[in-house]
Amino acid sequence: YRDSTLAWFWTMDVQRDAELNDWMSECMFLSVFYSSHWLRAKALKDRWEEEVELLRAEGKWTINFFDHKARSWDKLFWASDRQGWVGLACYAVRQWADFSRLWDHCKDLLHM
């Protein structure tokens, strides 16, 4: 974003035009006014674009987290089931179901 082309008022030769024409003295003030407002608007736009990028990344991180937790609880279920630990197996299945549901819901919600 920083290397994008400049607006027209940044490329004006205000000093030369002001020396050639009297009406350009007013234009010099307008040029400063417009350039400062343009910079402010561009900074705001850049911040919002960065925010959108961060939100998309956070959505992916959330989906990956729920997937990781679901897989972890699934592994724990199978390990505890083999050992015959019924209580832990039931708890692990419940946690796996919760995280799988969250993963599925986030994936659908964020279209990823």
TrEMBL record:
Protein name: Uncharacterized protein
Organism: Paxillus rubicundulus Ve08.2h10
Lineage: Eukaryota, Fungi, Dikarya, Basidiomycota, Agaricomycotina
